[in-house]
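Anyone up for a design puzzle?
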């Protein structure tokens, strides 16, 4: 794809309800290195030429940003300034190693410190490294970019001076900063342990806990009580939490419900690469080949359930491109080197999953109509968690119901029906994930309790 071609997708994303797009790294990478996602940077401040239709990639990226702004869509960039494509001591010498090898962090024996999984760490304390990073960010911000998501940001946060400089720069340029607040060597700073101020953070706890809930893991409902209200156990404000269920790495949202195990053989590492803990459930059949209609129908309902939990939670929802129309990678959860149909977005699949994209469009419009979901303050006492039980009076399995403002959400991950006590008042049902679309008009619910079917979610409004 190209920057210019992506402009053609903007009207569709605007109609879907998207208000920001985050591009994978677009600074220049080594075309011969072999990875596809852009996480092996050759030059932090240059715009990747291979994504341009013509001979001026920076101008094409700026045109994409300008076109997005015309639709009131922000553009964020994933930036990788923690390592370079020169990898370890055996790697090629392209720039920093030849200019000043001391810009890489070293151990006492002179070997590179490596917490990125890519062979080297840029020394974030080095004044020249800081100058290079800020200059590179300035050049991208000059193109109109609204925000920067820092890959493996825990590598940078080890340097208080780098953090102070980045935060001062972001205030001056009036851009958002977003942290992937961990590294590849066990460093983990999600939430209040992150040492920066004014940052948003990818909340992988939301991903893990919601996926666990959707497969009905024991104890998952209690964790959901934190996640749906913006993770107050982790963050100081709900807007700090970027809630997501899928991203570029890991399973696509469809594959979360189609595969129990990763299928990464094509990557060339004997299926050893990629995460083993995916919190996925294949709905009773591994993959699509030969899957019974009942399994395929359950997967679609699970997709609608997942979208409902994401859209109705406090915080900032994020999805991976194509999740709105069931994008699959065939169970590959680390398709970093798959520049082919495995990793590409198959827009023809939109026809097969047109009902899901229509559902998502309506759901995001519903979210936009209810300001309580985007308010900067915690819900606090306005939030009520609802009593629930099995229809025979037994203790309910994994399920959660909550009401806040003029919304009531009932989510049953259990394989039996569950009865939820409703708050007083007149309610109408806007969503039942047993249906492929939102209810139009909404259906009145005149009862003090409501039974939600197995592995289903219901949204009530008033």
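Challenge accepted. My sequence:
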């Amino acid at each position: 794809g190209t920057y210019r071609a992506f402009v053609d997708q903007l009207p569709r994303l605007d109609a879907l309800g998207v208000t920001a797009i985050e591009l994978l790294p677009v600074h220049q990478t080594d075309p011969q290195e072999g990875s596809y996602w852009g996480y092996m940077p050759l030059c932090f401040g240059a715009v990747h030429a291979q994504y341009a239709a013509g001979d001026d990639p920076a101008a094409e990226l700026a045109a994409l940003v300008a076109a997005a702004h015309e639709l009131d869509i922000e553009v964020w960039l994933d930036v990788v300034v923690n390592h370079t494509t020169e990898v370890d001591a055996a790697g090629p010498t392209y720039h920093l190693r030849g200019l000043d090898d001391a810009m890489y962090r070293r151990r006492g024996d002179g070997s590179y410190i490596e917490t990125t999984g890519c062979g080297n760490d840029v020394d974030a304390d080095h004044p020249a490294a800081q100058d290079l990073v800020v200059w590179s960010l300035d050049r991208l911000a000059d193109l109109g970019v609204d925000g920067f998501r820092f890959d493996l940001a825990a590598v940078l946060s080890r340097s208080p001076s780098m953090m102070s400089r980045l935060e001062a720069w972001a205030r001056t340029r009036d851009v958002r900063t977003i942290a992937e607040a961990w590294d590849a060597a066990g460093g983990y700073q999600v939430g209040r342990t992150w040492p920066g101020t004014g940052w948003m953070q990818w909340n992988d706890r939301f991903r893990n806990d919601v996926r666990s809930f959707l497969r009905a893991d024991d104890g998952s409902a209690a964790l959901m009580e934190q996640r749906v209200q913006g993770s107050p156990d982790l963050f100081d404000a709900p807007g700090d939490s970027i809630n997501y269920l899928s991203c570029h790495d890991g399973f696509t949202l469809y594959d979360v419900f189609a595969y129990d195990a990763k299928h990464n053989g094509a990557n060339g590492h004997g299926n050893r690469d990629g995460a083993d803990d995916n919190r996925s459930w294949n709905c009773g059949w591994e993959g699509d080949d030969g899957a019974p209609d009942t399994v395929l129908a359950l997967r679609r309902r699970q997709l609608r359930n997942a979208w409902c939990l994401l859209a109705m939670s406090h915080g900032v929802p994020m999805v991976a491109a194509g999740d709105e129309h069931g994008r699959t990678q065939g169970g590959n959860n680390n398709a970093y080197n798959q520049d082919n149909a495995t990793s590409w977005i198959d827009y023809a699949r939109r026809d097969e999953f047109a009902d899901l994209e229509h559902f998502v469009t309506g759901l995001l419009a519903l979210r936009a109509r209810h300001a309580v979901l985007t308010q900067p303050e915690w819900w606090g006492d306005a939030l009520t968690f609802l009593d629930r039980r099995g229809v025979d009076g037994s203790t309910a399995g994994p399920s959660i119901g909550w009401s806040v403002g003029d919304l009531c959400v009932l989510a049953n991950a259990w394989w039996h029906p569950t009865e939820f006590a409703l708050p007083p008042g007149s309610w109408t049902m806007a969503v039942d994930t047993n249906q492929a679309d939102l209810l139009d008009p909404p259906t009145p619910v005149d009862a003090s309790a409501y039974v939600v079917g197995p592995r289903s979610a219901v949204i009530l409004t008033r």
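A detail worth pointing out: The mean pLDDT is 97.
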